[in-house]
# Entry
Amino acid sequence: MPGYAPPQRPQAVPPQYRTPAPDDPRARRDDSAFDDDGRLAALREEYRRSGRRDNRVGGSPPPRRPDNYRPQREPAPEPPKKKRSRFARRPRLTFLRVLLVVVLVVIVGSAGLLFYFDSKLHRVNALSAYPGRVGDTPGTNWLLVGSDSRSGLSAEQKKDLSTGDVEGVEGRTDTIMLVHIPRSGKAMLVSIPRDLYVPIPRQGQHKINAAFSLGGASLLVQTVESATRVHIDHYAEIGFGGFDSLVDAVGGVTMCLDQPLHDPKAGLDLPAGCQTLNGRQALGLVRTRAFPNADLERVVNQRKFLSALVSKAMSPSTILNPFKFWPFVSGAVSSLTVDNGDHIWHLGYLGWKLHSDPITTTTPTGGPIQTDDGDSLAFGDNTTRFFDYIARDQTVPSDLLSTGGGAVN
# Structure
């Protein structure tokens, strides 16, 4: 019949299929049935004594750690670096490029200006070879000449500077100086009096400045070398027209006078004391002979003023000021005449050596004498000894040096 289910009656489970209760002694497993001659009990006892934790009976023991074992910690992972965008790197790269361009422009521009100004120097064949010329002597020797050339001066400038006119093509020289730069030690600035009486090649005996009037720079160099036995390595000459512009370019030169100076012939009228001289006043100071010892006093003033001018030109206030430095350089190259083998870097080295407190002196002489040229100065034994020391690049004894005199303190 649909929906009919026969009645369910529980049936007893056979004893062999029943699960004993936990507290039933029959539930305990008899391990002795699996013990083969007590080997299972021995393995368990060995495992207990050795302290092994391996669940595998009879398994190999794990390796023991050394006594000085220290667990190593793994380094902490670095935080991820932030990638800099190319827009962040661009300002730095731009700055470096601009800096590199500026440095290159300065280097190239300086080199260009150096060669440009070097090309503007006036040159003359002053150190020409001649038979019997004295050989090379130790150190470096310059012959500096201040001529009274009016070349390039207008009539108004001649009147303002009180230069007048001069006869002859080459003019005359009012200033002759020898600069000796030794292999070690201070440079020496030596004034050679223009009235020093010496033999002039092919011209007989005359005052030394006559050599410039008779044969120009080359004859003057030959005369100085023949008389002194000192080899001249470089030559530089400046005239009236360039001297005053150099002084004005550096803003004037401060000089301290021990006495007032008044010389209408040189256009000079200066009070005693310290004052800044402009180009016109400075030219009058180095030209004036209104002293008891005339030319001997003048050469001292010339040396002192030249030292002061070089110190002012090489000072940071001039070199670091383009409004002073470039006009000075431009004025120097346009007014200087050098030998064919001389260059502007030679002049720079000369200026550097002269601004470092050089030894200054006047050539010792044998005293005043009367000659066909008038009042002159004899070339004495002390003169020969003096130049011998320079020719051998040796220290000149103090008894041959003269540092006093002049109106400049």
